[in-house]
Amino acid sequence: MNPPKRIDPRRAYRVGPQGLRRIVLGEISVNGTTSATVEASRRPKAKPLRTTIQPTKWHMVVAHSYRGRLDDHAREAIACAAILAEPDTGVLVVVLGTFQEDPSPLGADRIAIVDDLDWSRYEPVREEALVDAFIQDYCPEHIFLPDNSLGDGDLGRRLLAKQQSSGATHVIEIDRKHIAIVWSSGNRLACAPLPRIVLLDPGAVDANVPFVGAGEKIAVPSTGLASERCVDLGLAPSKPSEIALEEADFIVSAGNGVHSIATLEELARSLDAAVGASRVAVDDGKLPRSKQIGASGKTVSATTYFAVGISGAVQHLQGIKSCRHVIAVNRDPGAPIVKRADLTVIADADEFMQALITRVAQAREQTEFKSGSNG
Length: 375
Fold this sequence. Notes:
Rossmann fold, 2 domains, 16 strands, 9 helices, alpha/beta, nine-stranded mixed sheet, 375 residues, five-stranded parallel sheet
C-alpha cells in the first residue's frame, strides 16, 4: 500500500488575490470560456532584461525547492535581491533540490541547482560547505534567504553564526539602505542599516518583478568531503488514523447518510486517507468528537476532501473552506454540499462505498500483476 498522505508544508504554492495559498493547475479565461483570442489577450507582455552590464558585484539567494518548484516565499527572496541590485550587480540563486522552471522570470542572472540536496534530506554540514564555496567564489555583498522553519531559516541562522556577518531575521520591510523588523510584541518597527545576511518574512516583497534576469545555469563548485555530524534517519511512516485531521492531505468524512461506519473506515484505509465526520454523525455516536469537522469542530485544509452522506450545513462548509478539491456522495442533488463540491456522485452512500472499495482493490491487483510480470 502507498504511504498515508499528509499536507506537506514545503509544497510549492502561489498566493491568490484573496490571500489564499493555491497550486496553479491551469488558467480559466473570461466567463469560464477558453479561446485562442482570450488566451492571446491574457498573455503577459515581454519583460525587459534587468541589466545588460557585466556584473562586477553579486547578490546571492539560497532556497530549498519542493518537487522542482520554488514557493512564493523563495520567489520573494529572489525578487528582493534583484530589486535591490544595482545595474552592475548580478543575482546568483542557489537552489537546494531539483528545479525545473525557467529562472529568468524570477530575476535570476545565474542559477546553481544542487539536485541531491532536496527538501526531504537533512545534511546541514554539506549545505554550509556548499554555500561557503559560493561565498568564496562570488563574495556577495548581500545574501538573502526566506525566513521559514522548514530549512531555509535554519540554514540562514547557521550562516549568521559561521560567517560572523551582520544579519537580520524576520525582516518585513527592506530597501537599499534599511531593513525593519517587528519589535515590542508587534507594537513597533525596529529599523537598522541593510545587513549582509537578510532573512525575509513572507509577504515582505512582491515576487512579480517588472524585468527578467539572464537565467544562466552554472556548475556547482566542488566542496570536498565533509564529515556530517547529523544522521538523517528519513521520514517515519505513519498510519492514516494517527495523522491529525489538520495535517491530513486526504480525508474521507462521514455524514448522516452513512449507516455503516465500518465500510467508511475500510474505504479510508483502501485510499490511505484519514477519517472525519460531520456534527450530525458525531452527535449520533457514529464517530468520536475528535473527528468532527466544521465551525464547532476542526478546520481542515486537505488537498482532497471526500464527503460521504454529508448534506453540507453552513457550519460544516466553514470547516472545509480551505480544502482544494471536494468530492461529494449524496442521494439529494439539491444538497448544499453539491454546490461546494468539484465532483458529485448522486448515489446511496453505503452502496457507493462498497463499489469503490471493490474497484480500488481491483485496480491495485492489476497494478501488482503488471509490475510483477514486467520483473
